[in-house]
What does this fold into?
Amino acid sequence: MDAFYASIEQRDDPRLRGRPVIVGGNARRGVVLAASYEVRPFGVRSAMPMMRALKLAPDAVVVPPRREAYAEASARVFAILADVTPLVEPLSLDEAFLDVTASESLFGSAAEIATRLRRRIADEVGLPSSAGIAAVKFISKIASDLAKPNGQREVAAADGAAFLAPLPVGRLWGVGPKLEARLRAMELTTIGDLARRGRERLEQRLGDTGRQLWELSQGKDQRPVVPDREAKSIGAEDTFEEDIAAPEELRPHIHAQALRVGERLRHAGLRSRCVQLKLKLSVEIPAMGSGRGSAYARREPQIVTRRTTFAAATDDGQALYRAAMELLRAHPPAAPVRLTGVSAQSLEPAAASQMALFGGAPTAADKINVALDRITEKFGSGALTTADLADPPKRRGR
It folds into this structure.
């Protein structure tokens, strides 16, 4: 997807279309979650500190994130992808690999499938997307990056090495700033330079890393598309615009997070036997020393987690909320809180839980959740909520 969060904001608010948009949180300690293509010429990129982004683009429109809207759009996009192939490997809310080898007999060539998918996403979800088509994952990823925005690029299997050759070595998977500097010190600035250096010489200098980089430089990537990665936990968390000192004020945040986790569990067909509450505290560190000059106290983050186990696995957000609040009451924070998170752990298939004791009748909570999920599916996230969440506090989360 192209500038996913920013594109959703521009889709939903016509006043933002064509304008430089930054999706992000607090200007003092937040980061850029997404940058529209209109603001990127100023040098603004995702993961950049908001303070720096606003210096580069002081006239940009800053929009707080709406997690529910992004999750809903993502679900609709992935449903479209699943209509073509079950072999979909999600990388994030807005990115995935698809293996369409077995789908070509039904839907045409890989390029035709990509065109069809992008057209459906534009028509049904109202968002732009880009696609890379190649014989291996690594090249398809780079091709999709080079096709942005709102385009697609195909690299034939025989052309992989030639396609990669002029690109900088920093494009290779596993090459971060330190390794890139080391490669440049070896006079390897492009992927083609690395390919010509030879496997044995690279192995002598870099060990297994040298072999892996050489294989990638040749367009070789044996990794298959893996559609079913077992989830170890499902969670939600929010960072607040301002630290919260009163524990009772954390209640609506924890409630909203627990409900989101419950919805995600049901969507994934999973139940949880354990819930974890996560708090990031803003702890004051006292000033040190008594010599000349000005000493000052500072605040540093501290992560605290607490867990509890259920007697029976659950996918009910209200049950997760009650358990998380019990943990909060039993372990009140010792300092102001800048982040809370709720995660469901020790996951198991919902069907396995329901088969226990010959699969008893659905509980009242089960029936309510079915109704809520149907309403959300039809009318979108936020169509129905609890009273304490009708006007949620400002935060940025996922």
